[in-house]
Amino acid sequence: MSEARSEDNGGNAATFDTHPGADAGVTPESPLQWSRVQGRVTEEGGAAEQIRVVERPFLGHLVLRGGAITLDEAVRAELGVSLPGKPLGLVLDAEGSRSVQWVSPDEWLVIVPAGEEFELENRLRARLGDAHFAIVNVGGGQTLLELSGEKARELLMKSVTYDVHEHGLTVGKAVGTVFAKTSVVLRRPSEERFELVVRRSFADYCVRWLRDAGREYGLRVESASP
Question: Which of helix, strand or coil describes residue 79?
Answer without folding.
Answer: helix
